[in-house]
Amino acid sequence: MAIGLLGRKVGVTQIFDEAGQVIPVTVIEAGPCHVLQVRSVERDGYEAVQLGYGDFPRRRASRSRRGHVAKLDSKRSKRMTASGVALLPKANCEPKRFLREIRGAVEGHSVGDALTVDVFKDVKAVDITGTSKGRGTTGVMKRHNYHGQRASHGVKKVHRHPGSIGSSAFPSHVIKGRRMAGRYGNAKSTMRNLKVVRIDAANNLLVVRGAVPGPSGAFVVIRQTNRL
Question: pLDDT tens, 53-98?
Fold first, then answer.
């Protein structure tokens, strides 16, 4: 069965285990998530569960966003019903801010189910996907950990420059893939095999060991790891 949830990064802190050792952890608000759609091999070509997290104000939601989670009367739906086409079931919940699919077997899931952090009660480690912090346009020292040029008397105002980037007469161009300055961060990133330290079902909190990409408040996707 597909085991995963959507959530929001709360922040980082540290806790102590029974032996008194400090553990750096990240606290994540995981769920509750509603099952909005169930993908099947017969209809979609693959198996997955589409989850939604975080209520979106209905007064601000577009008709397409509201129609994704609840049945709305329209001419198209009436024509489909009259022609004998079965409409897909709806979750009958509030519109959601964050939607993602968790691939895997769909047995035990149905549209409208509410999943909580309890789905990880028997899981020892998870993979967490998020968007890393965007740092804008940066130089090679910050982006690629270049050590820069020498700080001696002969080097003048180019201490943080990358140095030579091309070749001589052959091949007479910059080699493709050369690491240079540019946009740093704001990219999809996955931290693999993070140990589950604690689960707080009352507050929908998941505590994992280590760092999670993104700033506090960023949306994340949590899946059971396959690296055990």
Answer: 999 998 899 988 898 888 888 787 888 888 887 778 888 889 999 9
**What predicted TM-score, i.e. pTM, was given to this entire model?**
0.84
Rounded mean pLDDT of 23-31? 94
State which CATH number among 3.30.70.980, 3.10.350.10, 2.60.120.10, 3.30.160.810 fits the domain covering 33-115: 3.30.160.810
In sequence order, the β-bridge partners of residue 22 are 16
- CB-facing half-sphere around the CA of 126: CA atoms within 13 A: 31
Residue whose C-alpha is closest to residue 30's, from 4, 48, 50:
4
Residues pairing with 191 in the sheet: 128
Angle at alpha carbon of residue 144, lines to 139 and 145, rounded to 5°: 95
Please determine, for residue 5, whether its predicted confidence score (pLDDT) is greater than 90. Answer: yes
User: Residue 85 burial (CB < 10 Å; 0-12/13-18/19+)?
Assistant: exposed
Query: 1-31+117-134+185-228 is classed in which CATH architecture?
Result: Beta Barrel (2.40)
What DSSP state is assigned to residue 80? H
Terminal-to-terminal C-alpha distance of the chain:
17
Do the Cβ atoms of 5 and 32 come closer than 8 Å?
no
Tell me if 53 sits within 8 A of 98, measured CB to CB. yes
Residue 179: phi, psi to the nearest 5?
-75, 120
